[in-house]
Amino acid sequence: MQEIFYNGPYTINNKPIILKSWSIDFDLSKEFPTEIPLWIKFPNLPMTCWSKDSLSRIASTVGKPVYADECTAKQTRISFSQMLIEVNVSNPLPDEITVLESNGRQIKQVATYDWRPKFCP
User: Fold this and answer.
1) How far is CA 92 from CA 82, 99, 120, in A?
2) H/E element, 10
3) What is the spatial distance between Cα 37 and Cα 88, in angstroms, rounded to a whole number?
4) How far is it, in rounded angstroms, from Cα 99 to Cα 36?
5) pTM score
6) Which one of 13, 52, 72, 99 has the fewest beta carbons within 10 angstroms of its own beta carbon?
7) Long-range contacts of 99-107 (CB under 8 A, 24+ apart)
8) How far apart are alpha carbons 33 and 16 in whole angstroms?
9) Are 79 and 44 spatial neighbours (Cβ–Cβ below 8 Å)?
10) What is d(CA 59, CA 68) in angstroms, rounded to the nearest whole number?
11) Nearest of 93, 95, 72 to residue 82 by alpha carbon
12) Helices vs. strands in the chain: H and E counts, helices first
């Protein structure tokens, strides 16, 4: 069981599967997850922003960075970077992020989502 938990996160069709240990007093109405992992793409991200630290700072504006996909980490695809980020689905997801490059220039970075969860309070 622990191996399954620690090898995640898991997705099907880019939608997350949330795993939780079952207990006898489990109540779905009280334990509805609002923090879920989502794949987020940053198209045409300047190469000066592709370091681990820069990617982490950019991802942190949306949620908690989990990890970058293999092509992003190895910089084998430069048309976009893609990161798995744990986001709070009760908050709106930004379409743009302001990024400060190392030379002091500010850019508006687009953020795209393969799937946007629907949340109804």
Assistant:
1) 19, 19, 11
2) strand 10-12
3) 9
4) 24
5) 0.76
6) 13
7) 99/46, 99/49, 99/58, 101/46, 101/48, 101/49, 102/48, 103/48, 107/46
8) 11
9) yes
10) 10
11) 72
12) 3, 8
- Using DSSP's 3-state secondary structure scheme, residue 71 falls into helix
Q: Which helix (H) or strand (E) holds 58?
A: helix 52-60
Q: CA separation (Å) from 69 to 13, 15, 75?
A: 16, 15, 10
Amino acid at the residue 22: W
| Separation between Cα atoms, residue 65 and residue 82, nearest integer Å | 11
Residues 120, 12, 6, 59: what is their CA dihedral angle, to the nearest 10 degrees? Answer: -60
What count of other Cβ atoms lies within 10 Å of the Cβ of residue 3? 6
Q: State phi, psi for 120 to the nearest 5 degrees.
A: -125, 115
Return phi, psi of residue 49, to 5°: -105, 10
Please write the tens of the pLDDT for every residue from 24-52.
887 777 766 778 888 899 999 998 889 99
